[in-house]
Amino acid sequence: xxxxxxxxxxxxxxxxxxxxxxxxxxxxxxxxxxxxxxxxxxxxxxxxxxxxxxxxxxxxxxxxxxxxxxxxxxxxxxxxxxxxxxxxxxxxxxxxxxxxxxxxxxxxxxxxxxxxxxxxxxxxxxxxxxxxxxxxxxxxxxxxxxxxxxxxxxxxxxxxxxxxxxxxxxxxxxxxxxxxxxxxxxxxxxxxxxxxx
Length: 197
Hints:
mainly beta
């Protein structure tokens, strides 16, 4: 988890340089130029659990994580909810999307400032990482985005929650601004009606 280890301790002070601010503006413009993403992914969670699957994003507000077996999880986002589905237990959980890192990725307009603050910019081995926190509650958790340079390209993100659990998602051969069928994002809640009543 080099990305997280490179981040500052929560209370350390870091001043953004002119170069940092220029890179932040460049990355913000890049992210706002992404309308869709289709990518295979590998997810690593603290403790060594590894999952694989396919990620779909259509901004604004739509996301799908389609995990491969044996993982029994599916994740959908549409509008105001992030929906976690455990297909083995047939259990469904709804979480307000603005309380998740996914909410940041699928915003209509991504702004690196305001409610999401850039705490540090790290440059290493042809990559640039932004260490992000919620401006009004920086102790609640961290979110880091890593990009390849030349040309700029989103590579992965890491979420560290308030309990210290780290989840890293690496994109494998991502395709940006490609057609994604609308049905990919459709979650049929009727299949799980008994869990939702």
